[in-house]
Write a structure and sequence with these properties.
The complex is a heterodimer of chains A (213) and B (631).
Chain A lengths: L4 H74 L8 H12 L4 E16 L6 E2 L11 E2 L2 E16 H11 L7 E10 L5 E16 L7
Antiparallel strand pairs in A: 1-4, 2-3, 4-6, 5-6
Chain B lengths: L8 E6 L3 E9 L6 E10 L7 H15 L9 E5 L6 E10 L3 H16 L9 E10 L2 E9 L3 H13 L4 E6 H15 L8 E6 L4 E7 L2 E8 L4 H13 L7 H10 L6 H6 L8 H29 L7 H8 L4 E6 L7 H8 L3 E4 L5 H5 L9 H10 L3 H10 L20 H7 L3 H42 L3 H29 L5 H12 L3 E11 L2 E2 L1 H10 L7 E2 L2 E10 L4 H12 L2 E12 L2 E5 L9 E5 L2 E10 L6
Parallel strand pairs in B: 1-4, 4-8, 9-12, 12-13
Antiparallel strand pairs in B: 1-2, 2-3, 5-7, 6-7, 9-10, 10-11, 14-17, 15-16, 17-21, 18-21, 19-20
Helix pairs in contact in B: 1-3, 4-13, 5-6, 5-8, 17-19
The chains are: A alpha+beta (213), B alpha+beta (631).
Chain lengths: 213, 631
Amino acid sequence: MKKDPALQHVQILAVAILAILFMADGMLQGKMPQQIRGFKAGVKAATEEGRKYENLKADIADTRQYLEENKETLAQLFEKFQSNEGSDIEINKIITNITKKVILVNIKTKPKYTTLFIGKEAPEYTVPLVTKKGANLVVGNAIDVAKYEQTLEIRANYFEFLNFLHDLANQDRYFEPISLDLKPDPDVPYGILAKVKLITIGILGYNVSKKRR
Amino acid sequence: MAIKTNKLVQYIDLGTYSIKYGTFQISKETNEVIEEQKFVYKIPNTYSGPDLYMDSLGSYIKDIVPDLNKKLPIKFTCSSLFTPTNISYLSRVDKDQVETRVKDELEKYASQEKIPADGFYNQTRELYVKEMEDKSQIVSANILLNPKYVGIIKKHLYDNQLKFGGIYPALYNVYEQYLSAIEIKPAWKDEAIVFVDFGYMTTKVDLFFQGNHLFNKILHYGTKVFSDELFDFASKAGTTTLSPNDVESILHKIGFSKDTDILAAMELDINNPAPYITNLEETLKSIFSKVNSSINYFVSALARNFTNDNAAFMTIRKGPTHFILSGGLSNAKEFFPKATEAFKGQVHLLDPFNFQSTLEQTNETMTNLELRNQLRENGPFVSIAQSMLLGLDQTKFNLNLIDKVDSENENLIKVLIKLPMSKYRAVLGVILVLVCLRSGWNYYSVSSEHSMYKRKVSSLKAALRNVETDRVELHKLKKEQQLLQLQYETITTFTDGYGHWPSLLKKLIQKLGPNVILRSLKFNTTMPQFKTANYKKWKNSQLEKDSPWLKKEIHFEMKGIALALSDVPTLIDSLKNTGVFKITKQPATKFIPEKEIKTKAKTRGGPEIIKTEAAHYTFIMQGSVIMRNLL
């Protein structure tokens, strides 16, 4: 039986339409999972950011706890290493006090000077970024240390000198003899002529100079 | 004429006695209507009004469906019983009132026919207009079509997968034929031409003059009267089995020849047919008489007002010159002589498929029996042939009473629906449904996943709202912590190796012994330092030798006297054994021999004092102190 050409045409057309439908659908659906993948990546990134944020919050809690536990304890220690406007006077006062029992022949005070100290155990710290954008927040590890030096010339007998050294180690401030030059005093039994250079330090805080390194 | 030729058109002529249908075209060569196929379906029921007819239309269409072409839309030409037509003669109407009056006329006839006046399909058409100063003389046609009938026709067509092509009223059809006639015979234009169609229930009379359709009359008196009379005669004779078909046979074979022998040979159940045969001619005369009366009424009473001038009126007054007769009755035996007697003009019997030769007919040519047989064959399709002229003229599509008709070119969906190969259709359908379902499901699942992720992202983003504030907070806390740690580290670095100096001195003195005298003791401490210059190098190398952090170192130097040479190594050993002192340089010793030291007397003239210094050794010792070992 001869086929109706119109019918054949319609059948081919129908098949072509179905094929186009398939292809169009495939194209659309092929694109949709890509969008979903994009969203999944977005969720993954946001989740990662969330995790970072949780870590940040944990860091805050840990740091707070550390400060709560150590701040007070360390404060007692740090009192011995203060540097402020009254430190010079305080140091002179202490020295005057501990040299009462010896003969202070001469005293020289070097003006306060500052040195830089960079912590070896506490490296520089940068607050981690949580999202892609954020301020660059850096915590440096360089601090300024103030130094006070006094050179004393003392005449004392051996035992008085030992007492002087003993007193030196038991003050509210930290004193350390960095130079001791002892000679016998021929005029006094057990006499000693001593030249003592003392140093005391005070911590000023973070280094403010931009050229610290 | 903008008539499409050689294009097949499918028509159905809904008549009260028979339904004529088929596919036709107008030949390009002859300009005549020719049939591809044509059929006549005799209505099985006796006509009892249009409503009952329409009720039965479904079964009629079902009977003729096998003969119909489903691809071609079917155009209808209906009996005037379904499309009632009336002519209004409006004389001396104010020009601004014309529209209102025409509308009023339509409403009047609609009311008479009990058809809604504002029906979608009603039409009025001005057939003739004569302007006289501020007045108008108008002949207008009012064509009514009951919307209910249109609905019925469409329903039955669509139920049988057929297409609807519109309805052409008989009034317009005959006018088209007239136009065709005056095109063939231009001289006829200035003559009054009459078309008479003898239908089963009605007889239609149309008069044309100078290209205008001036008169139309539908006489509710048709060939059914012959049946009724035969039935009356038959009833009187005591039989009731005679049918309209019998009447048709009688008219064809006997007609008005009064030949009773033939009737006897037909063996109809009628005892005494002679009076009936005699009466046939009388009946015909009465029909002719009614036709003539109608024409005369127009010619005498109306023509004056609806002709252009006196000359035209006088021409009409003389009466029509040509009568073109059609209908089943026209091929009855001896009809033509009777018609010629009854009508004053030239009588033509309309052969719809040979219209040009119809116009050429003369009294002489009409004796041909073959012509009568041809008329018998073609006669029923007069309305269809007339309508063909209208249906194929693109400029006159608006004369179709129905605006919306089906297209001959089918749209894809319809074709798909009609696909005969149902297995392919089913497979395609299933594939389409599957594609739709698959797409739908995928879109649903992907979109729900999409919205879930969207919600998740937005909640996560909301949770991150205070990130920067917290980072600043952490920065502040870390600074505080770092400062504490740096302070602590600095202090531990500086205080590393801090010793109790009194203990150190005591320990040293104890180790000297009786044979060693100290002349000088020096301690020098190198404080812990941070060498900035080294820092960069160390950062890269991380080697201890490059370390910028320098540790505390305490160095000592002692000068003294030892009585014996061995006292110095003994001292070294004892100092080393403390673990505090580390001798870094071999001591330098020097022997000093015994010598006398003279000094002047303290008083003038006193004796000189002489002291003897025993022989001894001087030494210089250098080293470092490890303070942490002191404890």
